[in-house]
Amino acid sequence: MSSLLVRDVTVGDRPGRAVHVADGRIGWLGDAAEAPPADRTLDGGGALLTPAFVDAHVHATATGLSLTGLALHGAGSLRAAVAQVADHAGPAPTGTVLGTGWDETGWPEGRGLTRHDLDAVVGERPAYLARVDVHSATVSTALLDRVPGITDLPGYSPDGRLRLDAHHAVRQAAYGSVPPGQRRAAQQATLAAAAALGIGSVHEMAGPEVSSAEDLAGLLALAAGAPGPRVVGYWGELSERGGLDVVRELGLAGAGGDLFCDGAFGSHTAALSTPYRDRPETAGNLRFDTGSLVEHLRACTRASLQAGFHCIGDAAVDQVLAAVAAVVEELGRDAVRVCRHRLEHVEMVSDAAIEQLRDWGMVASVQPAFDAAWGGASGMYAERLGVERAAGCNPLADFVDAGVAVALGSDAPVTPLDPWGGVHAAIDHTTPGSGLRPFDAFDAATHGGWVAARAEHPEGPLSVGAPADLALWATSETLSAVLAARARPTCRQLVVAGDLIGDPR
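The line above is the sequence of Amidohydrolase 3 domain-containing protein; the predicted structure tokens follow.
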């Protein structure tokens, strides 16, 4: 049995501490002077040691393709975005052009990309450029031609700006064209980036409209084959379509994740109870009938499997909770609570819905960076919803105060892998009173991910018997000081299951 001693570290706000790790778990912690011997020693030199971060919502392949390819998040205009596409496509004149991150809401041209913009710079090559929320995209004519029947699907537009089912179909075609070597390199890039940021676990939110089962299996095999961040896999497909078979075959954590019950505010596809302010002809879209959600929840609950649902707008949240209520009535509250079903994003939610989440033991898997990017009186939320409705989005404090389990994630590549940034965004919410207390935010970004995956240690992540997933930071400050200063210390060393990941920095 291999052992590791991490000595002379500050744990929380207590300096001069040490943690002894045996067989991948914490075996002892206390004063450094009293530490037992170990096979290996990592001298912290007084640096801060914390639980490793958990990013509770990630798309590893798409994130890696963004990290290694075409990312349009910084494009400040339509002209700049087109120029970036041209610069990216020129050196490699074959294959599908893949990109993500463009956001037209602040562009001076007052419109987003069209297929004519893309055709002018990519010619006859297929191209897929996802909007920043990845719930709509602009594609080239060549890619449209590869998807039979695309013109008959909901969300199709002849200008190449696709939403809803048309977008899901074309995204499958685009990412299905990525060769295995490029896919593996992208996944490796994501895991390496996560490790460098002190992220010890990522929750991979896979599904047939996001990535294939083969893609997910490859990621799980990659993570299992070498020391690095853990990958907790989810598959978002209804039971009536065979989703539970994939969950069982791959040994996944749950039958959910990005099971898209609606879309996103930015693409006007999140399902609202009243119309969008800037497009009053639409209130978004619900993708499933409630009966299908009930059937899925019933199957998961009977099997004691965790279900999960992507739901952003209030109509989508209420639809999912109506399905949960039906299963509670049928199978009992305790049977539902033990499954700890998840809601992903859950951005627009009423007080009554929050109480239901608490009563039924559900998890709010949230992305504070969404509020940082799009919240506030002049942000995208206010443009889409109006200032009053926007101010009620992402009520993080209400979740915690009500006793709802909260886990923080990035939804990368929608927002970057940035755990400290997510913690600080959760604290500094754009709506006064909606932010988290500093230690609640840090707990949601670390322990919250274990709770969300039904894998937490009863005494917490820094206790005897807990998995030894730790991060050593290049700062001598206490955790309280780091949080107060909104600092972003560099990860000196990541430890996952007692293994030192990479070279110390």
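Note on the example: The first strand starts at residue 3 and ends at 11. The chain is about 35% helix and 20% strand.
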